[in-house]
Amino acid sequence: KGNEGYNVATGEYTDLVKAGVVDPTKVTRSALQNAASISGLLLTTEAIITESPEKDKGGAGGGMPGGGMGGMGGMGGMDY
User: Fold this and answer.
1) 6 with 13: CB under 8 angstroms?
2) Is the pTM of this model over 0.70?
3) What are phi and psi of 67, to 5 degrees?
4) What distance separates the 2 farthest-apart alpha carbons in the chain?
């Protein structure tokens, strides 16, 4: 089972080593490196995709009111 596979040239399942169908190590290694590189690129790209900008829906809201608690005064009397 280890060397058995589909021989496209003959159209049948056979022992690929006996049939002379052997992948050079460099080809297999390059294919794996390229696949890993593309996978990393896709994962990185997915992480940086942001939402498309929406059309302007008008101005911003009112915002936050002034700071501090009403009637408590500022922090001007603090000495360091």
Assistant:
1) yes
2) no
3) -75, 170
4) 93
| Tens-level pLDDT at each residue, the chain (80 residues) | 688 888 888 899 999 889 888 877 888 899 999 999 988 888 887 665 557 777 776 666 666 666 655 665 556 666 65
Residues 6+ apart with CB under 8 A from 6: 12, 13
CB 13 within 8 A of CB 4: yes
User: Secondary structure of the chain: what % helix, strand, coil (to 5)?
Assistant: 30, 10, 60
DSSP 46-65: HHH--PPPPPP-SS----PP
